[in-house]
Amino acid sequence: MVVIGSGIGGSSCAALLAKAGLRTLLVEKNPRIGGSCGWYDKRGFRVDYGTHMFTRGDRGPLGVALRRLGAGGEVEFLRVDDLAEVRGPGVQLVLPAQKWRLPQFCVEAVRQLRIPARELPRVVKLFYDLITMSRQEAERWDERTIEEFIFRYTEHPRLFGLLGFLLGLYFILPPWEVSAGEAILCFQAMVRDNRLSYPRGGSGAIPRAFVGALERYGGQVRTRAGCASIEPLARGGYRVGLKDGGEVHARMVVSTTTLGDLVRLVGADRLPEAFTARARTIRKSYVAVQVKVALERRHERSGCIVGGWARDPSFDPWNITREDYRSQFADLDQGRVPKVVPVYCPIPSNFDPALAPPGGQLLTACAVAPCTDVPRPEDTRPHARNDRAFVDGLLGAMNGLMPGCLDGAVFVDTMGTEALAAWIGKSGGPAVSTGQTPSQSGKNRPSVRTPLPGLYVCGDAAGGRGIGTELACDSAMECVAAVLSDVERRVI
After folding, report:
1. Residue at a domain's end among 379, 394, 424
2. CA 6 – CA 254 distance, rounded (Å)
């Protein structure tokens, strides 16, 4: 068995297959494991390549997989009292970790957002329905959008923006494209588990634990081993060609890249037209530009800063319209920086101080951007995708929401979408390979099985439910179940 890619999906899948007794090799194109949960060390700081929070911690799929591997105690998910702050013009709301503080949060949200009294019963009804909805009822919303769900209760523009943000933030798509069923189930799990957290040792602690379990169960990992091709063999099994000219023969292969990339690796002529046609039309999520800021002293208290910053000082957030929200994403689709730059800024060192030198702080901010296959009008070079304007927008937003956070920084590292895509290894560099839209969620999500016997997919391209890394891990466990079932039934 060969598993390609050592992100959360690939590393957890490989470890679980090895534990089940299958001879497993995990191959990774980079010099270090982890995918978007990879890391680098610089001047005493441990920095994530991605921008992460973990909504369910050890109570979600990550914890389930670790416990199945006998590694439940190897990753400690840490919490802080003030999990996040929502910031914007006239708004500064602190999301607490303790449930007893939530009523005050809600009162402050109503006051600061100037929610009309007539809307309050509708909001209360919406959240009551969200929390109490059965799984069966939530799944009936799989094929409808967050926007449709919210409009059952209110069409107030500011409320729509807040609710769309709360339910859609983690899917990196607009609320009129995200599956309401997926959002409802993820929101319910996040509230029920109340484990929004960050792992001790950085996000890389999770794939490190999975790879450690893989090796304990007799599996192997090879880095600097990029996949160039997956060739089905006439006698059964596959020849996996590596970019260094080597090759590996395997009875079964699990891919963690996009379905479009998988078609390219296998060859469209070797796959049914229906599969390749769907792979071509998959809606991927947006991606993000990133800024990593290392500070000598603490600047922020909360675990994460989220909010929006208007590039145009004349922008009036109190008279925002639904068309304004639409224009934000229209700008992204045209490769332009939106008028209001959204910021998502986890602060890993507030959870684990050891990620920074004594007294220091690490800010890991990102702002949504189009995938690398979308031209940027600001970049006139042929075939170039220059994210300078998006990075500048993010830096401006950080200064706007966290004044002085860039002053005297030890270092400020920026990462455009091309660099991130090159590290992760997915064409276009989407944050979620198969976006969680109504046609790509629940029963409509692509299967972890492909039409070729012995060829599987896991990670964020097929199977699973959840947010980000949790989606990838849930998909991995689904993939392992499919592999073991096929082995037992001798269909491969």
Report:
1. 424
2. 11
Cα 65 to chain center, whole Å?
18
pLDDT tens for 143-190 read 999 999 999 999 888 888 888 888 888 999 999 999 999 999 999 999
Residue 258: alpha-carbon gap to chain centroid: 14
Q: Which two tokens stand for residue 293?
A: 């800021």
Is the domain of 306 the same as that of 413?
yes
Q: What percentage of residues in the chain have a pLDDT greater than 90?
A: 81
Question: Looking at residue 81, what DSSP letter applies?
Answer: S
The answer to whether residue 153 is domain-embedded is yes
* Strand ranges for 190-319 from DSSP E: 198-199, 220-222, 227-232, 238-242, 247-250, 253-255, 287-295, 304-310
Query: CA-to-CA distance for 19 and 217, rounded, in angstroms?
Result: 5
Strand order in the sheet with 2-4: 220-222, 25-27, 2-4, 253-255, 455-457
d(CA 455, CA 473): 18
95 within domain boundaries = no
CATH (domain of 455): 3.50.50.60
63 and 109 part of one domain: no
283: closest CA among 163, 422, 170, 444?
444
The answer on 346 and 223 residing in a single domain is: no
310 and 364 together in one domain? yes
DSSP string, 372-420: TTS--TT--STT----HHHHHHHHHHHHHHSTTTTTT-SEEEEE-HHHH
| End-to-end CA separation in angstroms for the chain | 12
Q: How many domains does the chain have?
A: 3
Range of the structural domain that residue 122 is part of? 102-193
Same domain membership, residue 388 and residue 417: yes
pTM: 0.94
**Whether residue 28 is found in the same domain as residue 169:** no
Answer whether 56's CB lies under 8 Å from 62's CB: yes
Neighbours of 84 (CB within 10 A): 23
What would the pLDDT profile of 334-380 be if each residue is shown by its tens digit? 999 999 999 999 999 999 999 999 999 999 999 999 999 998 887 66
Residue 94 placed within a domain: no
| Contact call for residues 93 and 112 (beta carbons, < 8 A) | yes
Tell me, yes or no, whether 398 lies in a domain.
yes
